[in-house]
Amino acid sequence: MMKYNAVIKAEEGVSMEFDLSILKPQELVSLQLRSLYEKAGYRKYHMGRFEEYGLYQENLHFLPSEQVITFTDLDGRLLALKPDVTLSIAKNAQASAEERTKYYYIENVYRPSLESHTFEEISQMGLECMGRVDDAATAEVVRLALESLGRTGRPFLLQLGHMGFVTGLLDAVGAPERCRLELLECIRDKKAHALRQAASREGLSKQGTDALCRLLELSGEGARVVESADALALNSAMSDALEELRSICGALGRDAKGVQVDLAQVGDMDYYNGLVFQGFLDGCPRAVLKGGRYDPLVARFHPGARAIGFALYLNELNRRLPEREEGERMLSVALPKGRLGDQIYHLLASVGYGCGENYSETRKLVVENQSAGIRYFLVKPSDVAIYVEHGAADVGFVGRDILCEHGADVYELLDTGLGRCDMCVAGPEDFEEEPDRALRVATKFVRIAREHYAAQGRDIDVIELNGSIELAPILGLSDVIVDIVETGTTLRENHLKVIERFMPISARFIANRSSYLFKQEAVLRLLTRLSEVIAQ
Questions:
Q1: Mean pLDDT over each residue of the chain, to the nearest integer
Q2: Which of 30, 47, 166, 440 pairs with 182 at a CA distance of 20 to 30 A?
């Protein structure tokens, strides 16, 4: 680690040297960023630990999660541990359409953890520019985001997108409002197969569907992507978005080498209304910096004002990086154990990614093919998405059922078509619906079952089981089950029947969001080879 020293004045001409290398990475970076932001004219904003819950209750759709820690103060007020900083600044800042207000902050927020079923304290450092936000102010914020990533001392990429381009395209192809959230989710997660299915279901034309899928390919070096996207600009909103991105890349000049444009990057439609961006560090599994234009939020408190800002998640800077040898960039693949894993491995071997030793016979946990630049490890099928989401694996293969049940934050790049089956509702052969009472449902897919019946407005009681699900209705524990059905033989042998098939399932090729950027060439090479074989 590089050694930093600072000379600190103590008493009357006496000074002492302070070794900054003893600080944690997030502490060192926060010191550097404070200097950076203050030199750029940003004033430090400090807020209290607590905020009246009413502020969050009235603006829930602007929060990253509706779950907020609340308590009653001694005077009877309902307070909350702050889940967000921007909302409080937007409310209390003296912003107007005529003047520019600039703040930076170092604060802790309290949100549900991405890694456990608990709340966690998250250390954030960021800045907000509000009021008269013009092109120069926007470029300044993006440059500061870029410099903030650079101060970490790690390889980084800043990824730019634009909500105006995406929503403009949805308008141009005639996408109905009722399906836009689903389409945006498919775009965000690069699910081309699901995007085509949803677009077809909603009656979009082939040309419109092709245009939406083309969006997923528009990522890479900024100027090149913007130029390629010109042909797809079908209205003024899309053209204006491209012009803003072109202007920002031009303003960054030589610094733009750390910037990529990804026009499939989307944010919350209720929050962001223009430029959006994310920052990634090599070795960190998810974005460590997020920001963009959020005019609708600040305008709620200060009509006519505009706003742009970002937050850097300092906790991520303390994450221990994986040890790599010089120049090592092997692609790590999580394979599910069992028959599906065997099928996937044979598919991979057929496109040049096999290994010299039989992975299913060795007792090694990891096998690799150095010449192909690939490394495999076998994990429990339900754990594949976890390994990939948290960056222990770059890519993996997992059933759609597991992705939907756990809601993993990954790119879903390809439907392999392997392991096809269906998520079904099943019950006794003589089952009859009783709508006047809650339906008792036994399943290990609790989230999927709840969402399925919630869409029908049906009240259910869920009984969570982990095996032999078919026994539940036989023994009277439940009315029906929600489970995977392949051939239906087990159901028939136990005098059960399929009542409803509602979700087709197959194995998906997924990628960690950060690995997709820093190992993009290797990921896309594998994706291309798999796509060609599957299409045959």
A1: 89
A2: 440
